[in-house]
Amino acid sequence: MNEIRKAVGQLCSYIFHFLRSAMKWYQSRSWKKVLDALNENFLASFQSTLSSIELLKSRILSTTALKSQAELKDVHVLLQQVARTERDARVAQMKMWYSIDAKMEERHARLEERFLELSRSIGVSVQTQLDSNFQAIKSTGKTIGY
Predict the structure, then answer these.
(1) Is residue 143 part of a domain?
(2) N or C: which end of the chain has fewer CB within 10 A?
(3) In this structure, is residue 109 part of a structural domain?
(4) Residues with Cβ within 8 Å of residue 33, at least 6 apart in sequence
(5) Does residue 9 form part of some domain?
(6) Biggest alpha carbon distance in the chain?
């Protein structure tokens, strides 16, 4: 950034130098302007200043383009890091939900097993009760009428 500021400062200096030379010529007497118009080397007196202005302009443009590309690359890398972090967070969240889902399925399976055990034990005790009632009725000789 310092390099660009320095180059812009030099560019302004050369521009002011050119403007000073142009104003000096403009304020000169008419007969001098006529002679300068006939002089083939007249533009050469401005050429070194104009060349310096062109050179500095090119240097500023190329430096700013390079710095802009470097900054764009930094932004690109930063965006990639943000995207990677976001993706990792989503993957972690999905793993957490899958883990919770797996635990819930496991609990559901255990509850189902416990329910079946209770159903069987209740069924066995009911069957045992019915068998004993049937045996008691059979031993007394009573019949059940509907």
Answers:
(1) no
(2) C
(3) yes
(4) 25
(5) yes
(6) 155
SS (H, E, C) 91-120: HHHHHHHHHHHHHHHHHHHHHHHHHHHHHH
Highest mean pLDDT among 16-25, 76-85, 128-137: 76-85
Query: What pLDDT, on the 0 to 100 scale, is given for residue 139?
Result: 75
For the question of whether the overall pTM of this predicted structure is more than 0.90, the answer is no
Residue 56's CB is within 10 A of a number of other CB atoms, namely 20
Distance from C-alpha of 144 to C-alpha of 146, rounded to nearest angstrom: 7
Q: How far apart are CA 122 and CA 126, in angstroms?
A: 6
Confidence of residue 38 (pLDDT cuts 50, 70, 90): low
Arithmetic mean of pLDDT, 2-20: 91
CB 60 within 8 A of CB 4: yes
Query: Do the beta carbons of residue 45 and residue 17 sit within 8 Å?
Result: no
Domain holding 48, by residue range, is: 2-138
pLDDT of residue 11: 92
